[in-house]
Amino acid sequence: MSVQDTLTRWRYRYVPDHVLGELLSKNWIDNVIPFFMLVGSIAVFGSIVPGFFEPFTLSDSTRQLAEVGFVAMGMAIVMLAGGIDLSVGSVFAIGNFLTLALINLLGWPVFVTLPVVLAACAAIGLVNGLLIGFLRLRAFLTTLVTLIIFRSAADLLVLTYGTRLATGGASSPLWDYLAYGDVYGMPVSCLVVLVVAIILHVMLTRSRFGWHLLAVGGSRRSAHNAGIKVRRTVCLTYVLSSTLTGLGSFFYAARIGSAASDAGLGMEVLVLTAVVLGGNSLGGGRGSVAKALMGTVIVLTLTNSLISLGLQSGASTLVLAVALLIGVAIDVKWLKNRHKVISSVYVSPAYFSMPTCPPTDPDSGSPYAQNDRLKDVELIGLGELDGPEDVIFDRDDNLYTGSRHGDVIRFLAPDYKKRELFAHIGGQTLGFAFDRNDHLNVCVGGMGLYKVLPDGEVVRQTDETNRSLWSIIDDSRMRLADDLDIAPDGRIFFSEATIRYDIAEWATDSVETRGNGRIVCYDPRSGKTRTVLQNLVFPNGVCIANDGQSFFFAETWAARISRYWFDGPRKGKLEVVIPDLPGLPDNINRASDGTYWCALMGMRAPVVDMALRMPGFRRRMAMRVAHDEWMYPNINAGCIIRFDDNGTVLESYWDAGGVNHPQTTSMREHKGWLYIGGVHNNRIGRLRLPDADPNWTSNDSYWGSRK
């Protein structure tokens, strides 16, 4: 290897370019900018504002934070559904007045006053909800009008009863405790807002209403088509918003004790700025109550600090307006360009040097020499199948295969002309294996490992494994489980080709050739799943060796076959048995003579091998070239090879004309015949093997004969 190649390999191995793409794809990345704004604002104003961290200042600020925080959380809920509520300041004023009127004038107890205030504010929110949700009026204009109406009502009430409220006063220890009390140094109002925030977070992320709300915010038409009651959901968001605003006004009334006409004045701008700066999207469907609270801290830190520094009252409003403008610009630009940014940096190629490709010319004398041994293949289900990636037989000689539509299809013996739907799982069905109890185990792309009972019942076995401790990728969930085999003790070893790409993007992994795959073990006895091998280059084709203590597996993009001992004296040992295949290996299965079959789903090409040593070229290609014009490995022509335990390749089968099987992803020997599948084919092939054992079956090879 040249010095340049060595440096290139080190650079793309130790500089984790893919980390940036993974970080940008995380949902929590939206919190990064608000978090740094929060830290920055506290650091800056904490250093220039006298007494910023004094206990009295912090206590007063946290009480104010709680009161505004309730309103901000309500606004966030409305915005999550794609709406906006400009009437919160007016509702806040009415809630403040009503609280003081009930307690100071009528002498009602606190426990009665609170639910009445919340109910009254909820009724106001219901007005907005009915107008916007059911009558489908514009949210901005509607709440602007109700802002004026409710503010006028609040002003009239204050003008009529303001003097009596000022001369009256409640004498209640509980009322005073809500205003100035604390729990272990934390103000009561702040503790309540945290409890409410946790409840709302659980509701939004774990309840049906929360899921419906986010769906409505994402796309109201799609939510309607999915059967969600959009109008009712929108209406409820305004009811919740006004109810939370009423709760904030209740604590405000307890602390201030004044029904001045300026209560809640301009709060809609303050709260809207806080919610947007916290990272909640104006377009709906993206945000949280935690982001709303974080934005509230930023805004209150900003406004209170400006007041403490003695700036004129108009300065705070100006700064809020500028902050809101910046927040809106960031939200719109990021929402519009996020996927473009991610797509330009997500694909992160690595340096990979392929071994010398062995010859495949017809007269080369190589075991890979091209031939036409597949020309006599008989066809089963021609035109009736769509993507039969793997094939397998039960003890009654019935033939099973899958489809890209999530079906398990059974062809009935002996002539395989009649087919039936055996089971429907949902994801694309890939590798198959029968266990000791004649249960069909299936790897399902995007869903994990499943089992189909003899009566067709589908049972999920596992769809997650232990997460890697230091991985930036959340690799606990299965993304592309593709082939499996079963050990004598019942443990299931299966491959997950890539942890970065879904079934629809599996070929993109070839552009990276980074080692995104792994081998996973599921133990039905304990129900536990654990990762056995990591950092594999698109692992595929798991096959338990005849010794029952090891298994072979293929690494497709690396064009090699390896062997791993999971039991016995060599337990934990991994070795490459065939390092230099001329093609891309896929499924591996046993042969009747103690050797193994392997399908090569495509052949290597010199230009692709060269490109694997040029990660910079592949990176630029991914950034600048349309996805459907990328350079991919050749998967349009393949063959079948047979090898022994030592990795010696004994023979190969080709379809030189490319008529019967232009692509082979699997093969299964059964009673003297070789059955061939292909993930892009529309048929199953059947080839007579003249020297094979006519009575041999894979079920007997694994579990013994039951006759």
Describe the structure.
- With 707 residues, this protein is of the alpha+beta class.
- It has two domains: 33-45 and 59-302, ABC transporter involved in vitamin B12 uptake, BtuC (Orthogonal Bundle), CATH 1.10.3470; 378-465 and 476-703, TolB, C-terminal domain (Neuraminidase).
- The strands form seven sheets. A four-stranded antiparallel β-sheet has the order 3-26-25-24, with no helix packed on it. A four-stranded antiparallel β-sheet has the order 4-5-6-7, with no helix packed on it. Strands 8-9-10-11 form a four-stranded antiparallel β-sheet, with no helix packed on it.
- Strand 22 (639-643) and strand 23 form a beta hairpin.
- The longest helix is centred in the middle third of the chain and has 34 residues, at 313-346.
- The protein is elongated and about 105 Å long.
- It starts with a helix and ends with a helix.
